[in-house]
């Protein structure tokens, strides 16, 4: 079960929970499962078939360049964070 | 607009060019004579990227008209090296990593040369004031000042020991 | 990771060779964007709005077009409208409609200097004359010039179609609201013994690169285009120009010229699509170069901001809660760095209870662009000043409060996951141990301040090719424009892996057709990510060379060993060969060797900096003199220490300029009053002392050589460090940037008058 940390503004969709344990082998599977439990999550995180450009997913402390395709382990920590740009 | 013929000495060589009376010396160097080593940063005399030596004095070539070069001695960054041998200042800029993007470098080399031409033993603050008309946004000036001081030192030693 | 990368055996990394592009840059031979000239080239110029906010009723350019020598005039109507949708494009996200409208206004102008039309003519002077003949009929609208104004009820609306998720279907100037929370912030304040609450303001500031924007576009009859320009991101220029003009990406080739500074401001497009549009219209090459006033009015700046900070700590200095509200000016179109600001503002600290609200607000000022650690400097100015005040209340050393609360390996970032190995505490310890910090600062009106900063750094995509030449030299080809010595760093990495002299490795920065997609030179990512690609490409070349040696020696490739620059055969007595000896034989061993690698880099390591600044304030004039300045920064591993120092010094100098002098000054109608480098005052040589550097090396576990990005974080601490120093010098807390002489003088005068009771007398 991966630990999915729910960003503040998504918590109202998730019954106020900050942390949800969900099964899944990829970020995409986690989001499908989240959506199943908390309808509306998908629309919050995704634009069509990909993550919204304003959102970045971090897996195990690291920005995950593969996005939805990123694989997650059974103990993985998954964070959704605002995307950032540098100068 | 009618063009004017101007005779000048550029990096030691006699040069004749045609320019419009409204063209600046910077435009003439870059657009007419293809000497693009002299850079444009502001056109208002505030950045020093366009610095050249005009009869031995540093000027902003963006504030000088091309026609004013008549009969003058002009020196640009392209004239600093002797053939394939870099000048001491150029070498010191490289050794001290005194450039990052390098757009300000030609202007700094010219301003520093003007200083060292008459003062081979400048203090740090004399160097800083001699370079006050040149903006560098990349380096914080630290390594530029060190390069100029070190060039002065080497040139002093060279003078002392021949 | 190969054994040749262990620290003890570094041969090239950590040395200070002369950069490969250096000679061209000190002799004036290096070609920057404005140095390109081609036969038959036209010159383009832009007509800009004299109003901050107005509707364009009509544009009549018939007289301009009739001027002899004028070849084309274009307006916003010549650009496709573009999709109103945020799409990812390399490092940044782009809204093609907004991007297009920023390049040429469509129905409205949204800031003073907004491009309205562009002209191509046979000389720049004629193009300028033509601009004067274009007649634009404007309906002037009231401008919105601050975040408070923009967020107020009934504020004039910049974009009637702009919506934000929270408000629903209501027109607004707030493009976005970001919230980060952890723990229970009110409970945290109840645990606090001291609480400080303050409001901070900062003005827009410009990146201030010395080279103005430029572009030369060539369009051929077969529909293929080439753009030469100075940019941090040739692939972004290609993608954005294609998006704005509705062209296929593959029809454009971008050739990156040398670049005269960028600092984030050259990660987007202004002139490139315009020059191409004019080239398409005329069938001739078109060159465009901005004036400085255009650069200041219509490119860059980074956000001005309004930030409220409330922070509490125990008697011992343990921070228990922080509540931060921040609104950033995006400029005319959405997209300020407020998201990054919310994530950086408390990043150096372990704080259990946090609430951060960030607002992205559009105003009638130029669209902001990235600027070195975007968003972080404004935020750190606020937070690091409050932390200084808490330290004072607790009676502890300002570095000690940072160390006490500082983030370490395993500390969760306020918005997310725990840190891996980081070097924040080490930067504080380095300053604490420095001769500077231990020295006494004496004399009236003098003070010392410290502050820290954080920046994420970026990974993203890079490609690299390493070619082994027949004489045993090599070339390293990348797509990362070199702004501050990254060619040298790439060559050094390849030389290290291949056992070559760094002088024998020639680094090349090539165009968008000649290398795989490479994201911007920005986010401090080149030495990290492109460096990682170079490292792997060199390893790939090395593996191929081993195969060739095995072929020559008729042994198995596993039997070939590479050490100290030579190939050995472990199983027979073949004479060891150097790379150059083996390279000579390549024609008979299968032909040339080309190593290649691409990355979408993982393992980004964030960077921290801590800065100590001594100032002297002249109470008569309010002028601040920087007496001494030392910065400590974690570089992970410094590949070329001189250029790492250069980044630290340059960023610090920009931070000092931001602290003391730089600001966009607008009149009440929204006209920028200081669009020259005389009035937009950046630090000059006599304004600064030497900037002392301490490179801290806490290797980044995510990079084969331990590299962290070094380009950005040094700009973050100086404004707060200077504000803290000014407080110690004259006893006033400055909460507005810049701390210009007038502002500081006023603050000192106010303090004096309150102290002497005059303040009350005057008001009573
Ligand atoms: S271009 Fe002449 S001083 Fe700036
Ligand atoms: S090196 Fe870039 S401006 Fe000086």
Summarize the structure.
The complex is a heterotrimer of chains A (87), B (162) and C (764). Chain A is of the alpha+beta class and 87 residues long.
Please outline the helices and strands:
The complex is a heterotrimer of chains A (87), B (162) and C (764).
Chain A: E1 2-5, E2 19-22, H1 27-37, H2 41-45, E3 46-47, E4 50-51, E5 55-59, E6 62-63, E7 77-82
Parallel strand pairs in A: 1-7
Antiparallel strand pairs in A: 1-2, 3-4, 5-6, 5-7
Chain B: E1 4-10, E2 13-19, H1 25-32, E3 51-54, E4 57-60, E5 73-75, H2 88-95, H3 105-118, H4 124-130, H5 142-161
Parallel strand pairs in B: 1-5
Antiparallel strand pairs in B: 1-2, 3-4, 3-5
Chain C: H1 22-26, E1 42-48, E2 54-60, H2 62-66, E3 70-75, E4 87-89, E5 92-94, H3 96-103, E6 108-109, E7 115-121, H4 124-132, E8 135-140, H5 147-151, E9 174-182, H6 185-191, E10 194-202, E11 214-219, E12 225-229, H7 234-245, E13 252-256, H8 272-282, E14 286-289, H9 292-298, E15 305-313, E16 319-331, H10 338-344, E17 353-362, H11 376-394, H12 398-405, H13 424-432, H14 435-438, E18 446-455, E19 460-468, E20 474-478, H15 486-498, E21 505-509, H16 526-553, E22 560-563, E23 566-569, E24 577-578, H17 579-584, E25 593-601, E26 607-618, E27 623-634, H18 641-660, E28 691-696, H19 718-730, H20 741-755, H21 758-763
Parallel strand pairs in C: 1-14, 12-13, 16-17, 20-21, 27-28
Antiparallel strand pairs in C: 1-7, 2-6, 2-8, 3-7, 4-5, 9-17, 10-15, 11-12, 11-14, 15-16, 18-26, 19-20, 19-25, 22-23, 23-24, 26-27
Helix pairs in contact in C: 3-7, 7-8, 10-11, 11-12, 11-19, 12-13, 15-16, 18-19
Oligomer: heterotrimer
Q: Major β-sheet of chain A, in short? A: 5 strands, mixed
Order of helical and strand elements of chain B: EEHEEEHHHH
Just give the CATH class of chain A: Alpha Beta
Number of strands of chain A: 7
Give helix and strand order of chain A, one letter per element, not per position: EEHHEEEEE
